[in-house]
Design a protein that fits this description.
Elements lengths: L9 H11 L3 E5 L6 H13 L7 E5 L5 H6 L4 E3 L2 H17 L8
Parallel strand pairs: 1-2, 2-3
Helix pairs in contact: 1-2
């Protein structure tokens, strides 16, 4: 896990995806005014040809599944535990080709 901190510009996310090659990029917003930057990060990943190399999970108090779809994120986590579960499922699917029954 790499914690980029708060108020991170899209360029920093893009640089980190390019250099660290994570499987999953998670972003969280606590205020509605920060939500548009999530869409900007996804747009910059697309422009740079990096979007298909990473799964994007978003969450935070003001977000909804509808907004997640609008910005083309891969998953929405309504709270931190859900985010961890989504990450575990994503990694298990990558490793086993499907989510293993014993992990449910």
């Amino acid at each position: 896990m790499i914690d980029l901190g708060v108020d991170v510009p899209a360029e920093k996310f893009l640089e980190t995806v390019r250099t660290q090659k994570p499987d999953i990029l998670g972003m969280s917003a606590l205020l509605t005014v920060t939500m548009p930057e999530m869409e900007n990060v996804i747009r910059e990943l697309e422009k740079a040809g990096q979007r298909d190399k990473v799964k994007v999970i978003v969450g935070g108090a003001p977000l909804t599944e509808e907004y997640t779809k609008k910005i083309r994120a891969d998953a929405y986590a309504p709270h931190a535990v859900a985010g961890v579960n989504i990450c575990a499922m994503t990694e298990a699917t990558k490793k086993y080709g499907k989510y293993p029954a014993h992990a449910k």
